[in-house]
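ARCHIVE CARD
CATEGORY: sequence design from structure
SOURCE FIELD: tokenized fold
FIELD CONTENT:
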């Protein structure tokens, strides 16, 4: 009987690994409950239902900084391939009023613009000039020909799937033009605005009442705790999501972070009381470290590499399921 039970557990685990999409929405575990029932007691069935409902979202920083040319249409399309991924892009306004996507103030780092152009602030360049230079070749020759995109190009691609969302990091932006474009596409509910200044988020919430907003906390662990306390005093005004940078404290024998779990749980609980989502940005991670963060009840993250992160999330949740099945395989039948 024990051999049969272990065989069934391993067989089930193989089925789950083949058919369940762990990245955004786990598929029909409830349909497998009859199969699971002989293996699990009521408590473990509840655990499995909870696991089946786990949803992990992750901001794909600048589209896919480590995997595609940043802040380009090809990066955003790459990110949207992975369930749970929400690409983030930086928005600016050109001299002639075009809204376009670029992180830096100039073209120097990410394009092949010549010396006479590359260091000019893009707010002083017409979009035709910005668009002229290659934004892919510095990342890799295989992306030769990729251009700095307009925001409207990003929105057209986004409109191909009504479930898509996007983070817009507001740099140098004509907010009235942005409002007009967002209304034209009907995307207000699909946007999470990003800015480092709380007063800007308050302004954005007034202009786009059904959109969400996000800011971040960076620095040392103590600096992050102090900044969090300051935001709490201001009642987190204008903030819907709060991102915490997780610097690595130790890499071996396991990855641990400078912000300890007790603080993260306390901050999560405080944010939840204000209706705010906690988002974590682990600068290094593996399946085990992500599993521990997910176990804290955190389901929103940030990454520079959406494909790698998605795959690691799958591994993290597979670890959770594997542990559950292993424990169940050593219990007696009821």
């Amino acid at each position: 009987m024990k051999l049969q039970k272990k065989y069934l557990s391993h067989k089930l685990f193989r089925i789950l690994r083949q058919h369940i999409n762990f990245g955004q929405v786990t598929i029909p575990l409830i349909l497998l409950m009859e199969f699971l029932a002989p293996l699990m007691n009521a408590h473990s069935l509840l655990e499995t239902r909870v696991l089946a409902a786990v949803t992990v979202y992750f901001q794909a920083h600048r589209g896919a900084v480590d995997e595609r040319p940043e802040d380009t249409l090809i990066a955003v399309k790459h990110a949207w391939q992975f369930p749970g991924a929400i690409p983030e892009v930086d928005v600016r306004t050109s001299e002639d009023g075009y809204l376009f996507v670029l992180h830096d103030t100039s073209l120097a780092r990410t394009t092949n613009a010549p010396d006479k152009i590359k260091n000019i602030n893009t707010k002083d360049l017409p979009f035709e000039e910005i668009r002229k230079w290659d934004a892919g070749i510095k990342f890799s020759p295989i992306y030769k020909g990729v251009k700095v995109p307009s925001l409207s190009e990003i929105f057209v691609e986004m409109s191909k799937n009504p479930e898509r969302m996007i983070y817009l990091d507001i740099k140098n932006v004509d907010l009235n033009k942005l409002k007009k474009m967002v209304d034209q596409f009907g995307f207000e509910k699909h946007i999470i605005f990003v800015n480092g200044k709380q007063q800007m988020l308050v302004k954005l919430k007034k202009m786009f009442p059904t959109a969400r907003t996000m800011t971040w906390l960076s620095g040392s662990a103590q600096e992050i705790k102090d900044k969090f306390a300051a935001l709490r005093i201001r009642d987190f005004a204008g903030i819907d999501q709060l991102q915490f940078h997780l610097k690595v404290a130790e890499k071996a024998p396991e990855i641990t972070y400078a912000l300890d779990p007790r603080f993260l749980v306390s901050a999560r609980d405080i944010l939840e009381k204000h209706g705010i989502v906690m988002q974590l940005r682990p600068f290094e991670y593996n399946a085990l470290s992500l599993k521990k963060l997910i176990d804290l009840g955190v389901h929103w993250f940030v990454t520079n590499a959406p494909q790698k992160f998605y795959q690691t999330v799958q591994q993290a949740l597979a670890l959770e399921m594997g542990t559950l099945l292993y424990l169940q395989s050593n219990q007696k039948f009821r």
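CARD ANNOTATION: DSSP finds 13 helices and eleven strands in the chain. Residues 1-52 have pLDDT under 50 and may be disordered.
SHELF: design records, drawer C
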